[in-house]
Amino acid sequence: MSKRLRKPIKKEKDFSDKILKILSQSANKAFNYKQIGAKLELDDTQSRNQIIKDLKILASQNKIIESEPGKYLVKAVSKDYYEGKIDMTGRKTAYFVCPDLEEDVFIPTNNLNHALDKDIVKVYVYNRRKGKRPEGEVIEVIERNKTDFVGVIDIQKNFSFVSTANPKMYTDIFIPKDKIGAAEQGDVVLVHIEDWPDRADSPFGKVIKVLGKPGEHDTEIHAILAEYGLPAEFPIEVETYAKKIDTSIEASEIAKRRDMRDTLTFTIDPKDAKDFDDALSFKKLENGNYEIGIHIADVSYYLEEGTILDDEAYQRATSVYLVDRVVPMLPEVLSNFACSLRPNEEKYTFSAIFEITEKSQVVNQWFGRTVIFSDQRFSYEEAQYIIETKDDIIPEEIAITGSSYQVAEEIVSATLKLDELAKIFRKRRMAEGAISFDKVEVKFNLDQNGEPQGVYFKISKDANHLIEEFMLLANKKVAEFIGKQKKTFIYRIHDEPNEDKLIAMQTVIAKFGYKIDFRNKGDISKSLNALMEEVNGKKEQNLIDTLAIRSMSKAKYSTDNIGHYGLAFDYYSHFTSPIRRYPDVMVHRLLQHYLDGGKSVDEETYETKCVHSSTMEGLATNAERDSIKYMQVKYMQDHQDQEFLGVISGVTEWGIYVEIIENKCEGMCRIRDIKDDYYTFDEKQYALTGATSGKLLQLGDEIYVKVKNADLVKKQLDFNFLRRIEEPLK
């Protein structure tokens, strides 16, 4: 007798997660089962019954509450819901970063729900069991990090798409036909996201600016600025306002200031500088001590609060130093003229004046507004020549005047004495735990069209350290002066290094035979300094310098003073560069306010300004870094037939990163393009291992490469692997 076949039991759907998502997105609104059914587009009886059942189960689990009969709200605080920031990977997935969670939460692509990189979101966290990687789903985008993006437009018959070169932007932007503006096929454009409908794969946007054709120099530089929301020029009304400011030096104003015009004063700056923020004055006192003035452009005298000029300066918060141009915080009439401490001109300054002994001990200090007259302008190279040779004749090849000239004896003597005192200050700082990061800066020799003709490295020498030490002294003493009064102030703070990053760095540098001492805070800074000294001039220097800087916390502005770890200062502020940094302008204003006997200002107001300044500084740094990458790619584009010796600076499962030793340009050799063997990634050794030969390509190895591809738009270099340094030329 045949058995009767059983009908398969239909598995009931579970709508719990979707119900929680709907309630979480409208946290203060109560829903009944019909409203939830409508949101889910379900109106059959079976689904509605299941929704009713799931609502009761969730209520019994205390995940939601029944606010009135048949109506439900999500609980105000749930242990599974968190607010934080999205950190996109380059693989269309993300991590959710939240200070309330011990580890970052993985967000798969299909759980992003329209969240983009650095958005503030609410996330529901699954799999919070031990041994399982936590995963989450974005429930709500609370705040977009950015809504303007740079990309290349692809125009179709009835619509367009804009695709970006940013690997963390995982979607194209849909542009309706009537919102492409003046864009033409293939243009680089700036677009604004206006909407992202629930069921749309891509956000909807409109073109707000056409930047030009891909690969053109000005297009790519303007694209870098636009990508970070940085302005390329001043609004016409701001320029007009700045030009109307009275920049004359008046006897009535001089009378209110300490007159330093008769004291020997000079500036030391980069040879191509136009904005001279700071000057040093020098006078030997009868008691054998030295009166040394650090004189800073009195920007706050011209920059009045509440004006459109001040609003613009605050919004910018910093000048941006791109590879071929400066985007100033202040219009040129102020930055390069009225406020710039140019030689042989009277200038209003804000000064920190110290009486200092032969052993670099500060025995007296004074802060206030002054008027100065700069007797001489030096480049760092000229000042360095005086320090090294003690000669008073500046040779033609380094003279900024273009011809050889003689320096006054009193200026030579002052420069040499300031150098002596600065070296004592520096030695003392290092002994107290300061860390010396003299990272090599890559610079380009550009022709009149902004094309790179060569690469050179900017290295800090004694003249740079001289200026640095006296600027540090002023910044430290100003912060200390106000900080000890317990009044609201703007500090430049730097937290202790992240130990996990230091341990990761130790793993890498061990490959080169180096190590860090972790016993205590002092030992870490001493061993980092010893490491910096040991790697100086070696092939791995740039790699290790970069790793060391990345292991450090980021310095930022705050009203909450925790000291500055990297400088080993309990008090530190930014007082010395108000032409190019808005926090310095605020420091000047607060210092004068307190010198005048003013009460402590509102901390919350200034903390908001600190956060804004730190954010803008970060964006400017990213833009500066991108512009260097762009110029490196452009430079290498013209050297495609040349062999280069490089050092392996990174190893991944998809290939090796190689830094060219002679110019610091970095690119990738993809694993599939390394033809002398079949390589696999060995994570423990930071190496690629050849399956046949067993040979390694590991961090720090020197290899020869040639440019395979130079992509100006993506700012990426691809190399072809040629051979190891020890292998003969084939």
From TrEMBL:
<keyword id="KW-0378">Hydrolase</keyword>
<dbReference type="InterPro" id="IPR022966">
    <property type="entry name" value="RNase_II/R_CS"/>
</dbReference>
<dbReference type="Pfam" id="PF08206">
    <property type="entry name" value="OB_RNB"/>
</dbReference>
<comment type="similarity">
    <text>Belongs to the RNR ribonuclease family. RNase R subfamily.</text>
</comment>
<dbReference type="Pfam" id="PF17876">
    <property type="entry name" value="CSD2"/>
</dbReference>
<keyword id="KW-0963">Cytoplasm</keyword>
<dbReference type="InterPro" id="IPR011805">
    <property type="entry name" value="RNase_R"/>
</dbReference>
<dbReference type="Pfam" id="PF00575">
    <property type="entry name" value="S1"/>
</dbReference>
<dbReference type="InterPro" id="IPR004476">
    <property type="entry name" value="RNase_II/RNase_R"/>
</dbReference>
<feature type="domain" description="S1 motif">
    <location>
        <begin position="641"/>
        <end position="722"/>
    </location>
</feature>
<keyword id="KW-0540">Nuclease</keyword>
<comment type="function">
    <text>3'-5' exoribonuclease that releases 5'-nucleoside monophosphates and is involved in maturation of structured RNAs.</text>
</comment>
<dbReference type="InterPro" id="IPR050180">
    <property type="entry name" value="RNR_Ribonuclease"/>
</dbReference>
<keyword id="KW-0694">RNA-binding</keyword>
<keyword id="KW-0269">Exonuclease</keyword>
<dbReference type="InterPro" id="IPR013223">
    <property type="entry name" value="RNase_B_OB_dom"/>
</dbReference>
<dbReference type="Pfam" id="PF00773">
    <property type="entry name" value="RNB"/>
</dbReference>
<dbReference type="InterPro" id="IPR001900">
    <property type="entry name" value="RNase_II/R"/>
</dbReference>
<dbReference type="InterPro" id="IPR012340">
    <property type="entry name" value="NA-bd_OB-fold"/>
</dbReference>
<dbReference type="InterPro" id="IPR003029">
    <property type="entry name" value="S1_domain"/>
</dbReference>
<dbReference type="InterPro" id="IPR040476">
    <property type="entry name" value="CSD2"/>
</dbReference>
<protein>
    <recommendedName>
        <fullName>Ribonuclease R</fullName>
        <ecNumber>3.1.13.1</ecNumber>
    </recommendedName>
</protein>
